[in-house]
Amino acid sequence: xxxxxxxxxxxxxxxxxxxxxxxxxxxxxxxxxxxxxxxxxxxxxxxxxxxxxxxxxxxxxxxxxxxxxxxxxxxxxxxxxxxxxxxxxxxxxxxxxxxxxx
Length: 102
Known about the structure:
The protein is an alpha+beta fold. The chain contains 2 helices and 5 strands, in the order ββββαβα. Strand 3 and strand 4 form a beta hairpin. The longest helix has 15 residues.
């Protein structure tokens, strides 16, 4: 099984397709600024669950964020969990620069 992932900026999401099909197997929705990209929702169609579609979405999105020098805010639980299991991507996580005063 081959999963192809592409960024669809006008829809503000990544889309995954399997084995050249036109049907979208999964999506990862995002909000992008000049400094960061927030991944807010990931959904994989039921018939594609457990087949690596979600992981392909996350890996492609994070690789592209790294290439664009963007920090990542993983508000989507799927993205957050995936990153926690893949330490090679944890350096992308956004760290707040604000300080709380006492």
